[in-house]
């Protein structure tokens, strides 16, 4: 069965202790997306707290999603 979606928690998982994303993780996300896998960032943060990371990962287009507020809100790229 092919992987269709990867949902990644941000704090303590995606982000390094200094709140940056490592080049290896950026490359892995880009490779997954190039293979047609949907990558979704999930977080307890509000959208404003994730927007810059979405931008950094080029995940702010229609069809790109993030889950915020511990699952209370989902947002499509804008």
From TrEMBL:
EC category name: hydrolase
Keywords recorded for this protein, A-Z: Hydrolase, Magnesium, Metal-binding
A single GO molecular function term of this UniProt record: magnesium ion binding
Keyword Chaperone: no
Top-level lineage group: Bacteria
Enzyme Commission number(s) from the entry: 3.1.3.-
Protein name: Putative phosphatase
Organism: Escherichia coli
